[in-house]
Amino acid sequence: VSPLGPQVACHPNVDNVKPLEQVEGLEVQEVYIGTCTNARYEDLEVVANMLKGRKVDPYTRVIVTPASARIYKKALQNGLIEILMDAGCTVTGTGCGACIGRHGGILAPGERALTTMNRNFIGRMGSPLSEIYLASPATAAATALTGCITDPRGIWENL
What CATH number has the domain spanning 7-157? Predict the structure, then answer.
């Protein structure tokens, strides 16, 4: 087993990977969990388990976009969507959403997002003056609770 901890692909490209510790505490205005990557049922389950009975940071937009209609329906039937909404997340319909910078989580100049999507190129989620950081669903859930990039291992210990 490797001692490798959580990693974050930092602004402005997917190859700018750093250990989470190097960016921990960096404030974000949005956490985006979803699109075709990292919004599988299992990913939503991880996020819901971490958020159950808790509230997301009141100053952070938390948007969840399930990867497909089938996944959305299963998450709805099994209570995951209710958990996410009770925690303060906005759950959108399936699709590309903010990943292509068209709708559902567009970033303004100077805003920063941590997301589970697979690309963080300049302007990908809206303004070219925003920053996008890529991480796991667990890191996204932990960050949603605190409003800053947060190591999920501390949250898991308290579940």
Answer: 3.30.499.10
Going edge to edge, which strands form the sheet with 17-19? 17-19, 7-9, 131-134, 112-115, 30-34, 61-65, 90-91
- Number of Cβ within 10 Å of residue 115's Cβ equals 30
- Contact between residue 133 and residue 22 where contact means Cβ atoms under 8 Å apart: no
Query: What is the tens place of the pLDDT at every residue in 97-137?
Result: 665 556 667 899 999 999 999 888 888 888 999 999 999 99
8 Å CB contact between 38 and 117: yes
Indicate whether 96 pLDDT > 90: no
Answer whether 33's CB lies under 8 Å from 65's CB.
Answer: yes
What are the residue ranges spanned by the domains of the chain? 7-157
